[in-house]
Write a structure and sequence with these properties.
3-stranded antiparallel beta sheet; 127 residues; 24% strand; alpha+beta; 2 helices
């Protein structure tokens, strides 16, 4: 009736590691982030009431763009921080518990005369 052979495509597709073409590439992600920040924030002035919506919009735009890059089976976490440019210093840090073989991150910083924006994108592989 219906024997399963090698041509039927019914093989095991469960994989513990992403293929080389599907691996999270920090350089590609950083380029995507940089392009989006440059486009969206070039002439933006810091207005405190508008920043919550802007950060949310930026994080969604970046996440959607990263999904288009084809990082299959990766959970994307995008963190956006926007602050007023006053010449003060800011330190940021993140700690993660992950598999160093498959998971990674990328970050970029944008600054103009009015604001600074720091974006960190984390890619965690689904097993």
């Amino acid at each position: 009736m219906g024997e399963l052979g090698p041509d039927d495509g019914a093989g095991n597709t469960y994989s513990l590691r992403p293929g080389l073409q599907r691996r999270f590439k920090s350089s590609t992600v950083k380029e995507c982030i940089h392009a989006i920040l440059k486009e969206k924030l070039a002439n933006v002035q810091y207005i405190p009431e508008e920043m919550p919506q802007l950060t949310k919009s930026l994080s969604e735009t970046i996440k959607d763009r990263l999904k288009e890059e084809g990082f299959d089976r990766y959970k994307m976490v995008v963190q956006v921080v926007i602050g007023e440019q006053r010449g003060e210093g800011v330190n940021m840090a993140a700690r993660c518990f992950w598999d160093a073989d498959t998971d990674s991150y990328a970050h970029d910083v944008f600054m103009n005369d009015s604001l600074f924006c720091v974006v960190a994108a984390f890619g965690c592989f689904y097993y």
